[in-house]
Amino acid sequence: MLTPSEIKARLRDAAAGVERYLAACLADRGIPARLRASMEYSLNAGGKRVRPVLCLTTAGLFGLPAERVMPFAVAIEMIHTYSLIHDDLPAMDDDDLRRGKPSNHKMFDEATAILAGDGLLTDAFDFMAGVGAGVGVNSGDKCRGTGNGNAAIPAANVLAALRVVARAAGAPGMVGGQALDMEYTGRAGVTLDEMAAMHAMKTGALLRASCLSGALLAGADADAQARIADYGAHIGAAFQIVDDILDEVGDEAEIGKPVGSDAEQGKTTYPSLLGIERSRALARERADAAIERLSPYTGPDADFLRSLASYIVDRAS
Amino acid sequence: MLTPSEIKARLRDAAAGVERYLAACLADRGIPARLRASMEYSLNAGGKRVRPVLCLTTAGLFGLPAERVMPFAVAIEMIHTYSLIHDDLPAMDDDDLRRGKPSNHKMFDEATAILAGDGLLTDAFDFMAGVGAGVGVNSGDKCRGTGNGNAAIPAANVLAALRVVARAAGAPGMVGGQALDMEYTGRAGVTLDEMAAMHAMKTGALLRASCLSGALLAGADADAQARIADYGAHIGAAFQIVDDILDEVGDEAEIGKPVGSDAEQGKTTYPSLLGIERSRALARERADAAIERLSPYTGPDADFLRSLASYIVDRAS
Q: Model ipTM?
């Protein structure tokens, strides 16, 4: 297992690779200037880049190098970014700030923020499809990374991975989870099962898909797919539980938002239903289950994934 | 060439096939009830279904039967529907009515309308990818139509078609066109070239992609791809020019919206720059160019596509 500072360093390194690619990936696509500025503003606003790093790492675990997966991994970050832009809109969570900076609709305007989200979401699927073989149309731009046919990933693998991401991000997944979150907010009597199912859709599904898509791109077999999907689901749940705990007892300066905001907004949380100690134990259980599912694998990618599961539970922000 | 009433009948028949599939396609996906109701409300609100019919017809022209293409074609209608929902939002065009019924955010609420659009857009890519071979994950639901591997379309074809649709719908296409449309509205001095480029992105790109994607799914060769893409671009332009003309001189009861609304909103239109007669001539030119590009093809699908090009110019609504 890596130490917390080793994990942080590896996360930072991997995130830096993602950010180098992100910075230029919308150039030369013929996007109107203001729209592109709005998309890039949110895309380059920081964040841990956990989702693309997971995708790159699980692909690496099964032998597919990062440079061939990068556009696909970046596409998942584009989808995550679009979801933050739309969630912040006045009609949704109405947040003026995101990571300490004006949210997209405050920096630009509401119409531009809606369109920037729509653009990031749609263009993400162009990026994902672009890593596949047999793409003979509109493949001339610089932002694909798979210029030669030999380096392309088999089209069937790409389709399977893309489909997992679409299902996780769409109405049966993240979009549906946000709808349920809004429905449950302020409602009394939300049960643990309802809340867990909502989080599994809202945040869990895309984390799971980030992991599974990397394995699918690399052509992992059915047993490996199931293990990696479970790993992703477990760390997604652990991540959410710890998020809820930190919202109650975290350090405001470290987590970057006011402590107690969930309770203030009338959200049902793990601590509100289970208390802090049982919530912590549940997060630890899910992290251990994630680690257990990786038992067949060795090497630096597997070590990183195992260490990350523990780090998620032990993190302070 | 078909007579106008023959074209209308064939459009109606083809649209009915699309609507039968549309009616049930969101079932059994685990979408929260209210969100699903909102998505289905707009999806089943009528319309000519021109885009899916174009995709089915160009696929048919190159030998791929409609039942194998249907989920892909329906996905294009889902993308068109999402764009209408988001365009109607208060922050965008702020329309209370769509096809004579309350727009989505009036019938439901703004947050639900944003999410319904996001869900339709994302799920469309799941539907598109689902027609491909080699999909081994999450392929159990009833809404795919390609249950057995033999009937699946080669994954490389599906990826190429999906990518064309993503590029057309995204920030370099439809989303960017909407951004430019809002930027140009109320601005004096918008040139013919600027307006034409905006329309090519906002409405032309998805019509072109509807045609080209069918040909790509069917494995059409490069010459055929270019011909079909040009056909789609020409009819897209003709369609827009006629839309502008009808907005000025059409019959309100037939077009279903007040005449003169473009001028009232401060939009630059073909008639405002060229006058009615030169606009009509330009639409006819584009339709003729579309027809010319189909010269190598015979049979009912080719006849329908040729007749449709003329019908677009001669229509009254």
A: 0.94
